[in-house]
Each structure stands twice: as C-alpha cells, then as structure tokens.
Amino acid sequence: MQVIISHVNLDFDGLASMLAAKKLYPLAKVILPTKQGKSVEQFLALYRDSIKYYSPNQINWENVSEVIMVDTASLKRIGEINNFINGEKVNFIVYDHHQPTEHNVISNETTIEEVGATITLLLEKIKMKNITITAFEATIFALGLYTDTGSFTYLTTTSRDLKAGSYLLEHGANLHIISKYTNTPLNEHNQKLFHSLIQKSEEHYYEGVTILIAYHQQNEYTGGLSLLANKAMEMTGTDALIFVVEMGKRIFIVGRSSSNRVTILPIIKHFSGNGHKKAASAMVKNYNIAHVLDIIRKSIRETVQPAVMAKDIMSSPVKFISSATTIDEATKMVLRYGHTGFPVVDENKLVGVISRRDIDKAKHHGLGHAPVKGYMSTRPITVHSSTVVEEIQKIMINKNIGRLPVLENNELIGIVTRTNVIEFLYGNKNRDYKNNAPKIEVSLIERMNSLLPRDIIELLTKIANLADKMNYPVFLVGGIVRDLILGRRNEDVDVVVEGDGTAFASKLAQEIGGGVRVHEKFGTATWRLPSGLKVDITSARTEYYDFPAALPTVRLSGLREDLYRRDFTINAMAIQLNKDKFGDLIDLFHGYQDISQKKIRTLYNLSFVEDPTRILRAVRFEQRFGFEMDEQTFDLAQTSVDKIRLTSKPRLAYELSKLLSEKHPIESLNRLDEIGVLNFLITVNSYDSSMIKQIKNFKLILDNVSKQLTNPQTNVSQAWICYLVLLFSKHDSGFEQVNMFTLNNENIKTIEEIKALLEGKYHFSKNNTSGSLHHRLKNYRIESILCFTILMQFPNEIVENITRYLIQRQAIPKIINGNDLKSLNINPGPIYSKILQQVECDYLDKKVSSKEEAILLIKENY
Ligand code: CTP
Questions:
Q1: Is residue 747 a contact partner of residue 735, using CB atoms and an 8 Å limit?
Q2: Of 483, 567, 606, best ligand 1 pocket probe by most atoms within 8 Å of the beta carbon
Q3: Whose CA is nearest to atom 26 of ligand 1?
Q4: Which atom of ligand 1 is nearest to 492's Cα?
Q5: Which of 187, 348, 377, 857 gets the most CB atoms within 10 Å of its CB?
Q6: CA of 591 to the centre of ligand 1 (A)
Q7: Of ligand 1's atoms, which has the minimum distance to the CA of residue 617?
Q8: How confident is residue 811, by pLDDT bands cut at 50, 70 and 90?
Q9: What is the pLDDT, as a whole number, of residue 505?
Q10: pLDDT band at 438 (very low <50, low <70, confident <90, very high)
Q11: pLDDT by residue (tens digit) across 348-371?
C-alpha cells in the first residue's frame, strides 16, 4: 500500500502537495497529520467532504510499502506518524523545497529543489503527464503556492512558481477563495502579541542593513507567529527580523529576511530549526529565553554578508571637467558621453559638480563661452569609497541627487550614478560587484573550439600565455565575439590588451615570429604571422593605469573605455583570454541580450555624429542578421544623416562596398533611403526609386548568371560598384561621382569598362551568336556587361543572348595555346591573341570543338 503524508501543523502548501501527490499516485491514501495549522483547519472544516483523507489510526501500517512524503523530508516533522512507519521496510518518495537536514529520510527518489512552494514541483509533474485538474483542485494548489510564496513576493519565489501560478489560474483557481485565506486578519490575541513584539524590538545595524530582534513571553500557546513575522517585515520595512516567543515551556523562533545580504537560516540552525535561507523557524524546549536571545545576538553578525560599497559599483575612471571648461565645451561632453552631469576637478581636487540642467540653463541664457565655474554646485554631496549601497540609495532618494562623486583620500576616484544603484539592485547579471568586474555567466570555450580553426585557437592560447607572463589582462573583441555568439564563422582576430599593446605585439613577434606594424596615432599594432594570419592589437590603458596600487579596482576600466567607443552593443563585447578565464564573455553593455532580441543599439548618443559610416554599418548588420535598430538608434541615425556629407569618400566607399556586397543590397538601399542617407550620398537630388528598379533587374540577371557559373576562377566582386553606377545613372556627372567611391583599380576598371561599352556604339541584335558577342565583349567582365545591358535597356531577347554567352564564355576550354601556334610556324605577335580569340569565338559557335579542328581552321585562314 502507498500512503501520502506531510508535516505536522499542516499548512496550505503541505495540503496542496498531498492532494497533488494523490493525482500522481492515484492508489495512495492521503493521511492527514494529527495537527493542522489554523488556516488549514478552518479550510478543512468547510471542505472536509470534498477531500478524501484518512487519519493515521485508520491505516494498517503493516501493509504500507511506500510512503510519499511531501513538503518535508524530515522524519522529525511528521509527528506521531513516525512511530507507525517501519523505516526499514518502506520505500520513501520525497517532494520538498526546504533545505535538507540530518533527519531527512534516505531515498533515491527525492525531488528537493529550491522553489517557493513544494506544490510547484508536483504541479510540474502533473503538467508533464497531462493529468487534468479541476477548478477546486487548482484553487487548493494555488492556496499552497500563494501562502508559501507570500503571493509571489518572498525572495524564495522562482519563475517556476509563477509558471505554476499561471497554470492554476488557467485551470480555474478561484482568487476570491485564495484571497480569503491568504489575507488572514490578526485575531485579538495576535494583535496584542504583534504590538508587544514591535515595541520591544531592538534594532541591529550592520553596514547598511537593519535587523530587528524582538521577544515576548506568555504562558499559553498561540499559533500564527509566521504570519506575524511576515506582517512585521511589511510594516517596518526592516531588512530582516527574528522573533523569539516563549509560550509555556517552549520557545518559538521565527526569522525572516528580505535582503540578499542577510541569510537567516544559520541562526535558526543553532536551534535545530529549518526552513529556507530567508524564512526559517525553530522550536526549543528547556531553554532560557535570555540564553536564546544571547545566542542570537552573538551570531547575528555572521548572517550578514559583506556590504557592497561605492567602490564596488561606481563607474571609473570618471569623466570630469575643470572649472575653466566653457559651457559650450561642457555641452559637447554631455552629448558625447550621454552623461547627466560632470564632476569639476581642479588640481586633483573635486571643486564642484555641474549637472546637465545647469549646463542647459546657462546655454539657454547665451552663456556658452562662460566657464562652468560660475554655474556649478560648489559644495557637492560626495560619498567615500567605502559608503555602503544602502546608504547611497538613501542619500539619492532624500537629497534627490543622481550622481555622487566617490572620494578616497579626498581625491575623486569614481562616480556612483542612479544607474549604478539600479543595476545593483535589480541585478545586472554580468557584474560581480565585489570585484568591480563583469560577472561571467557565459563561457564561450565550446563555441570557440567548434567555430574557430585550430591554428587560431592555438594562436589565442599563445597570446594568453604571454599576457599571463606580462601580467596583462587580454581580450578578444569586436565582430568575432558577436559572431561566436551567433554561431557564425569569423576569423578576424582583434585583441585588446590592458597594458602596452605595442610592447606586447613586439614580444609576440619575438617569441612566435612574424612582423609588427605599429600605428602610433591609434595606439594599435598589427602583427602578421609567418602563416599569413593577422592579429590587430589595441592598448586599452586608463588614466589610472600607471598606479599599480589602483590596478585591482580599475583594471577593467581600460577595456570598458575601449568597448564604449565602439559602434553597437553587439560589437562591444569581449572574451577574456587569460588562462584561468579563457573563454569568459565580458558583456558590459548588454550586447548578448541585444543579440537575442535581434537589436542594433548604439552605445552613446553621438555615435553616428562622430562616425556617420556607422549608419551604413547599422543597415549592414540589420540585413545580414535580420536584426533591427531600436527606435532610439534609428532616430539618432536619421538626425545624423547630414554628417554623411562631411565624411571622407574612401571611408564611405569602404562601408558601401561591404554593405552592397552583402546578400540583400536592394533591401539595404531601401533602408538607406528610409533613413535619408541616399540624398546625402548623391549630392544632386537625382535619386529616385526607378533606380532601385534598375538595380533590382541588374541583380536578378547577375544572380541568374552567377548561379550557373561553373568555373571557380570567375569572380563577380564588382557588383556593388555597378549598383552605384546605376544609382548615379541619371546624374549629369554620374561616372565622376561613382569614381569618388572607388577603392581599388578593379573598381576603376569596372567603371571604365561600362563607359567604354556605352561609348562603343556596338549594334546588338537578337540574332547575335555567342561567337559574335565574344568578339566584342571578350575583354569585359560579367558585371560591366550586365550593367551596360541594363543601362541600354535592351529587350529581353538580347539580354538572354548575352546571358547565355556569359555562361558559355566562362566554360570555354583552352583547346589551343601559343605553343601550338608556334609549331604552326606563325610568327609571335599581336596576331596570336587575334587567332586565339577567333578560336574561342568559333568554339562558342560550335565551328570547332577540338585542337585538331582548330588547327585545321587556322591553317585554312592564316
Ligand atoms: N567599429 C566601430 N566603428 C566603426 C567600425 C568598427 O566601432 N565605424 C568596431 C566594432 O566594434 C567592430 C570592430 O570595430 O566590431 C571591427 O570592425 P570591422 O572589422 O569593420 O567590423 P566587424 O564588426 O568585424 O564586422 P564584419 O563581420 O563585417 O567584419
């Protein structure tokens, strides 16, 4: 026989879990413990007939072979049932969400997981097995869930509990009944007890957290202490509390915490109690209440984790200005960095703070040229590097300030902003605040091993080894990180080193080989390995870097600065390469999240103004990955388009070539048009949508030809320049305009070819054979010819002829060569290429198909 049991003083989670277990083990008998909690007792008084259960003495325990224990795993908590169970004979199946204790039964069928309520665990099984539940059952299950999670507000609540809740509501859980049993009003006695506890409570304050300890003595037992503890937490807003109530010979101890820094369970364990980290209780007999309180007071300090301080969450290094900076310059800084104000520092001393509002006001009054000195707050409120976050939060709220300079030895070492505090409170999972470093949640080692070729992995390991030796933090950055996350191949190794990058590159070359080219101006070096691999190395040094003492706290700020300067969040991630952290993702700006949400987002407001080519890049990434700019980024792109005009043509050309060489050039052009870029690329207003149509046709034909190319030597890399030719085709000086966007001789040649074809005035007709076309077009590349056919608006028959010719052309075999001509005693000279071309034309027109036939023909004609 199977039985289902739970703990004494049965609560709703125990009751719900027993009934849920019955759904999973339908043959088992539900046995109510002899004692139920007050609310459950009241509930059962009403619903007794709707639930089938037994009392322990209705069971023939001899026959019990399996015991399903829910909401407890401890034999100590099941009351007198413990006397009936023959522990050696029975098999236990356990479902529980409490911390294991030494009294737990031994079983290999245990499900003990940290969720808010045990019912969640059982419900997940019910769901998995597709077992139907009635609205009544859903209501009881929900009662268990709501009461044990404090209506989903206790810190023990998990997303699994909420999913369970949603499932129960879908199945008709009655909120009216739930609210009746969860909002139990205090009875008269408990009200008195509550007031006595609050009045007698003593406050203990440790580095920003407050813990209340309160006690009370009474002769008789009254239940509901947990409820009182929850109410007191709510009312006092304390971080944690411990209530100690002597009732007759027994002392009840209840602890609650709402702070991530206070774990109450260890104290309760002193008294052999149990529960969760933040909600636990114990009962002791034969103790003196003063002794209990003494133990609690002595050990309370241990429950508090070290405080998180200003230095742990602050941003550093700080962008500051001097008091002589003009309002105009300050305005630029505000725009550049998107900050809402700056500390003002003169000779290493903080002399004031100026907010964005002050700057705007001064500017509004025409004081752009005045120094900020006259408009800054001269007695700024600051915090020390060791001020705890809770204190910082209070200052920000009480004084309504959003930025607090952080001082150490009277020097500005960082700034804490509202964002820092909010990130800390609401969890930026990527930061480990105690180390002022990003917390690593994602390791990309496996991705790296599967996506990067062996030689690159070996190279990265060598880079890491040297960096470890030189004590430099070193990172892989940029597009390769993004692509590893996206699961795409990318072999561009860009490395950022927090140290002297040039020295690092030289040392690498010295130890591994290859040569280094230093680009002083940009603080970068390119290391070319003998194998042909290329590594770009950038130094990320901070203002503080020269002070070794400051290293542990500011180390990653160099990397942060480097990443912050980049175009989009998805391109501003890094992978650490140092040995013990190899493969760890560093994601300071939520790039990982943006990738999963398919978003292109700039890191700061002036990103496009500083580098308008980024607008083209944004469109490129949109099209390539099927992503989209977020609203703000799109707006910033639109408002910055005019800066395209000021951007150097080669830089634009480089980005255009990359953008238009991607898979979806038409969509990209449409998007550029939507943003308003095209009107700034084409200086005279000569762009209209008919050009996109031409480009579409061109691409259609080119794709069709490309698909049928069999000769791997044939290259069609000039399509993008043809798109530009088509785009500028109605422009008076179209070719000159396109010429400005050329990047290399190939591009120039393509344009020249199209021009020559247009000027050639050949007559094309539908009767042209491939041979006759070859005669005229042999020396022109595929893209130029097709671009020309579009510009000429040839009828379909001609286009088809030309297409057929191009496909045949790339597959012409070399049936004859110069040596063959020599052996025919033809004197070398320009005649050779003429003859060879003629053979090709004849081959295309099927007049010759072999060397012998060709030789025969040559002999006849020459
Ligand atoms: N970058 C930037 N602004 C630019 C160009 C580049 O911030 N105008 C940064 C980005 O962080 C980018 C990195 O430099 O990831 C490398 O640039 P690049 O090689 O041009 O681009 P990738 O992102 O690697 O893209 P692709 O895959 O097209 O090479």
A1: no
A2: 567
A3: 479
A4: 24
A5: 857
A6: 14
A7: 8
A8: very high
A9: 94
A10: very low
A11: 889 999 988 889 888 888 889 999
Residue 295 has pLDDT above 80, yes or no: yes
Q: Is the CB of 662 under 6 A from ligand 1?
A: no
Helix (H) or strand (E) holding 120: helix 118-128
User: By the 8 A CB rule, do 351 and 323 touch?
Assistant: yes
841 SS3 class: helix
Confidence at residue 687, expressed as pLDDT on a 0 to 100 scale = 61
pTM over 0.85: no
3-state secondary structure of 403: strand
So what's the pLDDT on residue 552?
29
Count Cβ atoms below 10 Å from residue 313 Cβ, excluding itself.
24
Q: DSSP letter string over 570-596?
A: GGS-EEE-SGGGTTBEE-TT-HHHHHH
Is 391's pLDDT higher than 80? yes
**Is residue 613 within 6 Å of ligand 1 at its C-beta?**
yes
User: Residue 80: phi, psi to the nearest 5?
Assistant: -70, -15
Q: Looking at ligand 1, which residue's alpha carbon is closest to its atom 16?
A: 478
Report the distance separating Cα 101 and Cα 272, nearest Å.
Answer: 9
Give yes or no for residue 623 CB within 6 A of ligand 1: no
Ligand 1 close to Cβ of residue 204 (< 6 A): no
Dihedral sign from CA coordinates of 825, 828, 831, 837: positive
Residue 426 is predicted with a pLDDT of 62
Q: Which two tokens stand for residue 413?
A: 């070492």
Chain segment 585-613, per-residue pLDDT in tens: 998 888 998 998 899 999 888 889 889 99
For residue 428, pLDDT over 50 is answered with: no
For ligand 1, atom 21: residue with the closest CA: 479
Given CA atoms 189, 190, 195, 199 in this order, what sign does their dihedral have?
positive
Amino acid at 642: D
Pocket test for ligand 1, best of 476, 481, 566 (most atoms within 8 A of CB): 566
Nearest CA to ligand 1 atom 12: 478
Locate tokens 């980049």: which residue? 566
617 CA from centroid of ligand 1 (Å): 8
Q: Which atom of ligand 1 is nearest to the CA of 490?
A: 27
Burial of 465 (0-12, 13-18, 19+ CB in 10 A): middle
828: helix, strand or coil? coil
Domains of the chain are: 2-182 (3.90.1640.10), 188-303 (3.10.310.30), 310-438 (3.10.580.10), 440-597 (3.30.460.10), 598-681 (1.10.110.30), 682-809 (1.10.3090.10), 818-861 (no CATH)
- DSSP string for residues in 338-370: --SEEEEEETTEEEEEEEHHHHHHHHHTT-TTS
Query: Model confidence over 701-741: pLDDT tens digits?
Result: 999 999 999 988 888 999 999 999 998 888 878 899 899 99
